[in-house]
Amino acid sequence: MAAVCQVTGAVPGFGHNISHSHRRTKRRFDPNIQKKTYFVPSLGRKVTLTLSVKGIKVIDARGIEAVVADLQKRGVKF
């Protein structure tokens, strides 16, 4: 599963692990991605979205109907 939020567009960040001796190795900072299922009354069905926790908070604040309408405008398949 790709670590990308469908609502906020959060993607992994990259950086380094730094050891005690200050050697650097590549690492990846993944967003907290969750699969969440919502019932959308306007579509009359359930929709499963891949969301970061920030995306879940956006849905709680704006409502699933508004978020799904924005996703449809952008052409996101779900």
Automatic annotation (TrEMBL):
Keywords for the protein's UniProt record, in alphabetical order: Ribonucleoprotein, Ribosomal protein
InterPro entries according to UniProt: Ribosomal_bL28, Ribosomal_bL28/bL31-like_sf, Ribosomal_bL28_bact-type, Ribosomal_bL28_sf
GO CC list: ribonucleoprotein complex; ribosome
Record bears the keyword Oxidoreductase: no
GO molecular function, one term: structural constituent of ribosome
GO BP: translation
Keyword Ribonucleoprotein carried by entry: yes
Family: Belongs to the bacterial ribosomal protein bL28 family.
PANTHER family, A to Z: 39S RIBOSOMAL PROTEIN L28, MITOCHONDRIAL (PTHR13528), LARGE RIBOSOMAL SUBUNIT PROTEIN BL28M (PTHR13528:SF2)
Stored NCBIfam families: L28
Stated name of the protein: Large ribosomal subunit protein bL28
Gene from which the chain derives: rpmB
